[in-house]
Automatic annotation (TrEMBL):
Belongs to the small heat shock protein (HSP20) family. This is Hsp20/alpha crystallin family protein. Residues 32-144 form the SHSP domain. It comes from Pedobacter hiemivivus. PROSITE patterns: SHSP. Gene3D superfamilies: 2.60.40.790.
Amino acid sequence: MTLVKFNNRTRNTAPYFNNVFDSLFSEALNKNLTINKIPGVNILESDVNYKIELAAPGLTKEDFQINLKKDTLSVWAEKQVSETEEKKDYTRKEFEYFSFARSFVLPESVDGDKITAEYINGILNITIGKKDDSQSAAKEIKVS
């Protein structure tokens, strides 16, 4: 075993061993804060509609904005927590701010008038109705 100097101190461990553990603990704590937090989505299709389940815990229904423009459904959410009580004795405090945006391109079989959304137990459920088959059925057009 060799002696290695660290910051004018002598240790009996290899430098690579210490660097691995130092980087593991410091980077693991910091990386969680910088991860782009886009919620997971489940998309279900039945004969009459599509259903989008978007996992977004900790929000309220007022935090969401849903918009349909042409064939694109966009979902935004933004939450900023601000406390009026000021605590000066904290060692570390992170600002609480959460936002995301997701867009979905909808197929032609979607009826834009049949879209509903509800937020239950941390999951945003968006139900998108399909057009009636009678509207999209093939028609024979006679030439006159």
